[in-house]
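histidine kinase structure dump, as promised
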Amino acid sequence: MNPLRRIDTWFRTHPVISDVLVACLLLLTFSSLSVGAAAPLYPEAAGTEGWMLLAFTISVAQLAPWAIRRFRPVLAAGITVFFCLVQLLIGPDLLPSIIIVPMMVHNLAVNGPRWASFAGLGTALAGAVLNGAKIAYAPPSFLDPGADLISNNNAAMSGDVTQQAVIAVSFAVGAASIVLAAWAFGDLARTRRLAMEQLRDRARQLEVEAAQERELAAADERNHIAREMHDIVAHSLQVIITQADGGRYAGAQDPQVAVNTLGTVSETGRKALGEMRRLLGVLRGPEATEFHPQPGLVDLEDLVETIRLTGLDVDFAVEGEARRALPTGGELAAYRAVQESLTNTVRHGGPNATATVRLRWTGRGLEIEVQDNGRGAAASEATAGSRQGLVGLRERIGLFGGSVRSGPRQGGGFAVHATVPYQEI
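C-alpha cells r here:
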C-alpha cells in the first residue's frame, strides 16, 4: 500500500489525535518564530524578556485551540480571535502565529455552522484592516522600549501620510486576499462534504428500500405459492379421499366400482403431481420450469365432472357472453374460485349435499356464484378447515380488483359469490 495513502487513512480514522499532533507541531514551529520576531533590535534594551514572554504567550494561545477545531469549531475560533485582539492592542505588530487566522477561517467554513462561517470571514477581514492600520500608524508599544523593525520604520516615516496609507492598504489587501481564499476553499470543501453525505444517505435509503422491496416480493411470492399449493393439494386430496372411501365400501358389492374408483384416484393423483412439478419448477428457476397451460374457464367442465365422481350432484351453467377479455390470470382466478367452493362442499357439505355453479357475464365482468344445501357453517370441528382457502381466494380475486363474499345461506347450506372485472382498456 502507498505510504502516503496509509498516512492519509490513519489521519482520517483518528481525527482528534491528528488535530492534537498538528497543534503541537504548530506550537513548536511558530511559537519559537514568534519569540524571535518579537526580539527588539537592541538586545540590551530594558524589558526584552517581558516582551518575548508576551509574544510567546500570545502565540501559544492562538495556536493551541487547533486541537479542538473539529468538534468545537466555534469555541476554537473564539479563543483565537480573543488572543488576536490581545496582540492587536498590546502585542507586537506581526507574529508568525498569525497564520492560524486563515486556517481557522477555513475550518469554520468546513466544519462550523453557516452563521459562524460568515462571522469568521467578517472578523478576519476586519482584523486585516485593523492590523494594516496598526502597522502604518500606531506608535511603538509601551511594552517594547527598543521597538521592532516595522515600528522603527513607522517612526521614520511618521511625517509621510501617503506612504503610511500605502502600507496600510497593501497589508490589508494582502491579508484579506489570503483570508478570502481560505474561506472560499473551505466553503467549497463544505459543499462537497454535504453533497457526499447526501449521496451516502441516499445510498443507505435505497438499500433500505431495496431490502423492503425484496421482503415484500418474497412475502407476496410466499402467499402466491401457498395459494397454489392449497388449491392443488387440497382439491386433489379431497377427491382422492372421497373416492377411496366410496370405493372401499362399494367394492364389497361391485368390484367394478372399486376398479373405476381407483382409476379416478390415479388420474387425479397424476394431475396433482403434474401441477406440483410445475410449481416446484418455478421455485427452482427458469431452466427447470415446464410451461404447461394454466387451467381456465374452458376447464371448468372437466373440474365439475371430477367433482361429480365424488358423489356430489353439481348443476353447472353459464349465462350470457363475455364482452371483453378478462385480465391475464383472471380466468385462473375464476377457475380456482369454483374449485375451492366445490372442494369445501365435498369436505363439509355432508351426505346428500348438492351444489349449483353459475357463471354470469355482465357489463362489468364475470360473476361466479356457488351454492350448496349442505351443513355449511354448521360443520363439526372434526370437518371444519382453517379457512385458508377462502382467505387465499379473496387475495387472488383482489389482485384483479374483484371481490369475494362467502357465508352460510338462510335455511342451510353455504354460498360463495365472486366477481372478476374485465381487463381495463
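The chain has twelve helices and five strands.
lmk if u need the other ones
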